[in-house]
Amino acid sequence: MNPPWSTPANRGGPVVAVDGPAAAGKGTLARCLADALGLPYLDTGLLYRAVGRIALDAGRDPAQPAQDIAQALLTADLQRPDLRVAEVAQAASKVAAQPAVRAALVDTQRRFALDRGAVLDGRDIGTAIFPDADVKLFITASPATRAMRRFLQMGGDSTAPDCAARLHEMEAALRARDTADASRDVAPMRAAADAHVIETDTLSAQAVLAEALRIARARLAIIRA
Predict the structure, then answer these.
(1) Which pTM does this prediction carry?
(2) Does residue 82 register a pLDDT over 90?
(3) Which of 131, 133, 150 is nearest to 141 (CA)?
(4) Among 29, 77, 144, 205, whose CB has the most other CB atoms within 10 angstroms?
(5) Cα–Cα distances in Å, from 11 out to 5, 83, 110, 174, 191?
(6) Which of 28, 162, 24, 47 is nearest to 109 (CA)?
(7) In Å, how far are 47, 48, 91, 106, 141 from 83, measured between CA atoms?
(8) What is the pLDDT of residues 179-193, one digit of tens each?
């Protein structure tokens, strides 16, 4: 059942923007928020990963113009099983820095929320895609914490002899990705001025969800009043 949210005239439901750096837990949170609020969910990072993946498959440098790929992106491209690997993450960061690619994907993201509203996660949802989002969250954690989470998600063994070296490598990669995302000329990653920042270093996924739901429900209650 869709709740009677009061939203801008051009949208049929509320928009919840969930931004933050890689491996901060924003994807897991956004999916759970969408379920709890009865809203569609879009992982916008997959759009850029798909563009980067296609560029790599074609033997193209992801740093070179990729607007043509973004304009021709298909739903099936977002469902590929090889989008969540390190080389694609790096390629995604490079294509995301291109103004023409971002412009090509802006309408895709906005149309997704047109009928019913949505929960979208990314790096510029609350600042560039939906600056008028009803709820804005910025989910973050230290690079060390994010590296450990990613290591464990990939089946890493914390007792393995190479654990420290792999964690160091992952943390360095995350720091490099953060720098690239935060320093790009177009729509850099940053918390919107009116975003609620949630530090997740010491919080479980359940605790993060509880806090995010508290914020979202309080904000949406004010909008409906």
Answers:
(1) 0.85
(2) yes
(3) 150
(4) 29
(5) 10, 30, 10, 35, 23
(6) 47
(7) 10, 10, 10, 20, 23
(8) 988 998 888 999 999
